[in-house]
Amino acid sequence: xxxxxxxxxxxxxxxxxxxxxxxxxxxxxxxxxxxxxxxxxxxxxxxxxxxxxxxxxxxxxxxxxxxxxxxxxxxxxxxxxxxxxxxxxxxxxxxxxxxxxxxxxxxxxxxxxxxxxxxxxxxxxxxxxxxxxxxxxxxxxxxxxxxxxxxxxxxxxxxxxxxxxxxxxxxxxxxxxxxxxxxxxxxxxxxxxxxxxxxxxxxxxxxxxxxxxxxxxxxxxxxxxxxxxxxxxxxxxxxxxxxxxxxxxxxxxxxxxxxxxxxxxxxxxxxxxxxxxxxxxxxxxxxxxxxxxxxxxxxxxxxxxxxxxxxxxxxxxxxxxxxxxxxxxx
Length: 330
Ligand code: UT7
What we know:
CATH class of the largest domain: Alpha Beta
Bound molecules: oxa(dethia)-CoA
Shape: globular
CATH superfamily of the largest domain: Thiolase/Chalcone synthase
Helix content: 25-40%
CATH topology of the largest domain: Peroxisomal Thiolase, Chain A, domain 1
Structural class: alpha/beta
Number of domains: 2
Radius of gyration: 19 Å
Oligomer: single chain
């Protein structure tokens, strides 16, 4: 079987920077609390009219250009988001239209913070199996339009931001590129981090009462999520290493989902790797859910932090609960 590798990466961040000080004008919070508890200093918010499909298309164009191919070479796209433009259809088809991709398939992935890695595993399988030669994988989020910016929602709202990242996956010789993907879920914890409405369980699925009760806003049992995250990240990274017969010392870089700087530091400690081997940009963008890993990956490539032959591990944990890792020989 042939291999599959990442041929190009791209990202799109809205230009509007929202600082912690900006948030203190909307809710009862402080710069100190946000920085100490999360590491976030600023995040990007879109202006009205920009959706996750717009950001996704922009990131995808950059990734295709970096891959040195043209859009007409793309055979399939996978779009991961928890913030689609509409309840249906999923955002993938809007990205497909914006990119002018004639009738190629567009698959939406709804696994929240792990959406990009789940999507990457789909591309990996399609390319390794010979079904497609070039698959776009996009993670994109517009969180800012769905946050509770009052004091009641401050624990959730201060961590999230908007953005998109994308990669093109194409063929490689066996043993090079994406070595393996490891995907997990535990639905019994789904209600610990969720957004309830609109809900098909309700008649109608959205109502004034639901809006008044704030059921359309995300809610999170933060400490609970935190506890599970710091256990699952190291576990799934070790799983990837063991599956490929390599050790922690062989790893050049870990790119975790950017949830909270304290989680990233706890993961580095648990793995016993120096902090500089675990990438972080949460201070600049906050938590961009499905977009956080491809944005970080694109920055690492741009900064020359990943070189040919490097062993890189991507890992994510989030709502569902879902968690995943991908091991790559760059
Ligand atoms: O990406 C998806 C996965 N998500 C995550 O991985 C997030 C995981 N969880 C976390 O990152 C953290 O739990 C949070 C950053 C969300 C919260 O931090 P925490 O240290 O767990 O704080 P907490 O929720 O236990 O709240 C501690 C205190 C509370 O006050 P009292 O009850 O001790 O008086 C909160 O009301 O901090 C208060 N608080 C705030 N204070 C100022 C909560 N949010 C804020 C805020 N500003 N924004």
